[in-house]
Amino acid sequence: MSTESERKRRFEGLARDYATDLYRYAMWICGNDALAKDLVQETFLRAWRAIGSLQSDKAAKSWLITILRREYARTFERKVPKFTDIDTVVIADEAEAEPEDRLEIRLLRRGMASLPKKYREPILLQVVLGYSCKEIADELGVSKSAVMTQLFRAREMLKLKLQEDGVTGYDYELE
Amino acid sequence: MNLNEFRKLLGADPREREPESQLAPPSGPEFDAARREAADFEDTLHAAAEVPAPDDELLEHLLAIPEQQPRRQSHWFAIAASVVVAIGAAGLLWNILRPAPSLDEHIAWHYALDGERLMAMASTEFDINKAQEILAHFGFSATAELQGRIQFMKICPGYEGESAHMIVQTEGGPISIFIMPGVSGEEHQFEFDGMQAYLVTIGDSMAAIIGRPEQTVSAYGNLVRGALTRTS
Q1: Could you tell me the residue range of the domain that residue A118 belongs to?
Q2: A142 touches chain B (CB under 8 A)
Q3: Is the residue at A154 inside a domain?
């Protein structure tokens, strides 16, 4: 097999394995379907050009997420209006949930979208992509203990949001 | 570990997968209650974070990337390209730090983002039904003549919300058209990055016709005005 066809085969494997994860993450940071798809396409375009620098396929997911985050910061973040389609795009999946759960899910979704970036990024990496605290720390370039504090505070903010909106299932307070 | 410390740990690692959680996990009624509460919240949080998988079209576009991109170039070409990219990145950074872009700046940014890539995806086999769906989504219809010339179309980020980005075949070669619903402004022509754009008004919206300078995009103004109709 030629080097070029091997390169192409490897790229196709990455696209098939990670396109959905990257799209889901992109939806959360862009808040818009069209923009998320553009961001994923730009990410894979850069990945194709640089695929020779990917040492191991085990590192592919974090490599792609790093490209995506950089691409978003470089090209998208301050250039396009803030979209909130994330609020509507998932609603169809809630059809089977109880009304109270639907309300809670909607409030949480809005809460996640409105978290400060410092807290939103680690919790999205953990919840949407299944990253460990160590992987989040590596991705964000901060210590693991800082990540654990940010994750804890992010959840506290979300619980507080639910309480403020009258959903009172999580009403303990830390001393 | 006391209950407060445990709750803090659960706040960071509610599914107890981290080494810190697995090392001598505390037990007892209060700890178990905290675990259940964290698990309930986490289930709801994961449901809230769920996003449906993208349509198959995205994967098709990704798999087409190697065919649209040039093969690997020589080492020196790569170095030269890196320099160009670095200069471009510096320019982009300068752009990013600027305040809200004007409509012209937005159009230049949009074209730089995916103009050439979508041009490479244009095909005479493009499904015109998809173009009709996108036009209807924005409350537009197109004449049969224009529909017959559309070789690619997708929804893109716009100046105010979303826009439609289409590639249209003309006698002078393919041109790009951004349909920007709800955007108003003066009709005018401008140049950017070696391209020429001509903005025309269509009802309460605008369209940007983009091509190379030799394509004289202003000549397509009447064609676009006459071929697109606001339906809602």
Answers
A1: 96-164
A2: no
A3: yes
Yes or no: say if B37 and A159 are a contact pair by the CB < 8 Å rule: no
Domains in chain A, number: 2
Shortest Cα distance, chain A CAs vs residue B47, angstroms: 7
CA–CA distance, B49 with A127 (Å, rounded to integer)? 7
Between chain A and chain B, the number of residue pairs with CB atoms below 8 A apart is 156
Residue A52 maps to a domain: yes
Predicted TM-score (pTM) of this structure: 0.66
Q: Inform me whether the C-beta atom of residue B130 falls under 8 Å from chain A C-beta atoms.
A: no
Q: Which residues 134-193 of chain B have a CB within 8 Å of chain A?
A: 154-157, 160-162
Is B69 part of the contact surface with chain A (CB cutoff 8 Å)?
Answer: yes
Please state, in angstroms and as integers, the Cα–Cα distance from residue A154 to each residue in A26, A102, A126, A151, following that order. 19, 21, 11, 5
* All structural domains of chain B with their residue ranges: 3-49, 101-230
ipTM: 0.86
Helices A133-140 and A60-71 pack at an angle, to 10 degrees, of 40
* A170 domain residue, yes or no: no
User: Given an 8 Å threshold on Cβ–Cβ distance, is A90 in contact with B51?
Assistant: yes
Q: Does A82 touch chain B (CB under 8 A)?
A: no
Domain boundary among A76, A104, A129: A76
**A69 within some domain:** yes
Per the CB < 8 A criterion, the answer to whether B55 and A34 are in contact is no
> In terms of domains, do A11 and A62 share one?
yes
* CA distance to partner chain B, nearest, from residue A88 (Å): 10
| Helix/strand/coil percent split, chain A, to 5 | 75, 0, 25
Residue A72 is encoded by which pair of tokens? 């978003």
Q: Pick from B37, B50, B58: which is nearest to A40 by CB?
A: B58
Q: What is the pLDDT of residues A76-134, one digit of tens each?
A: 666 555 555 555 555 445 555 666 678 888 889 989 988 999 999 999 999 999 999 99
